[in-house]
Amino acid sequence: MGKRFPDCSFAHNFSCVDRGRILIFWNNATVGVDTLDMDDQLLHASIKCLISGRQFLLTCIYGLHSIQHRKPLWDKLKMVGQQQINLPWIILGDFNSVLTPDEKHGGLLVTNREIRDLSDCVAFLELYDTQHVGCFYTWSNNTVHSKIDRVMINSVWMQHGLDIYTEFLPPGCISDHSLSITTVFRENRRRNIPFKFYNMWAAHNLF
User: Fold this and answer.
1) Got the DSSP string for 138-181?
2) What pLDDT does 32 receive?
3) pLDDT at 189
């Protein structure tokens, strides 16, 4: 990391899990990062944009592969949310769980037991998916397709009216997961404007 990105600092949760699961790095000239908490499924940090002075919380997620092993993740998120609920907050990464039955195509049907813990956590923390474009399903093994990767924000982020949107690229580039690119605080971004056609135009003699 030091040789490839000499102007960057980095943080990880490698001390919490043997193989390592989460790594973040940032440009010291534009971003300040203070790591607040970590375990084997998340890394939680305070982020400050040194250009705009804006500050927010970031939690990177890498959920374990079973319902039982993911339960501590949802409990930790609820605890973090209760402690720092008044700050804008982004939660992103591989949740390893869908939120609704329609977020999986193929394979076994989604049960209420599979989605209950994540659904309860999202409702408790008042989280919302960011505006996004690109792939709906973010993971695939060519038989099963599911949306297990997401970028979410809390209600405080929305109340502050902060700009954020995400693009999910097709899986298969460097992983069987979609690469997600989230942009924040972009000024003067042209928002999608819906196309409208009025039938009365077709009746005009110059149409």
Assistant:
1) -EE-SS-EE--EEEEEEHHHHHTT--EEEEEPPTTSSSSBPPEE
2) 96
3) 54
- Residues 145, 143: Cα–Cα separation, whole Å: 7
Show me where the domains of the chain are located: 8-202
Query: What's the confidence (pLDDT) of residue 194?
Result: 65
CA distances from 80 to 92, 121, 137 (A): 14, 11, 28
Spell out the residues 6+ positions from residue 197 whose beta carbon is closer than 8 angstroms to its own: none
Contact yes or no for 47/33 (Cβ under 8 A): yes
What mean pLDDT do residues 11-28 have?
Answer: 90
Please, are residues 131 and 164 in contact by the beta-carbon 8 Å criterion? Answer: yes
The architecture CATH gives domain 8-202: 4-Layer Sandwich (3.60)
Sheet holding 139-140, edge to edge: 104-105, 145-146, 139-140
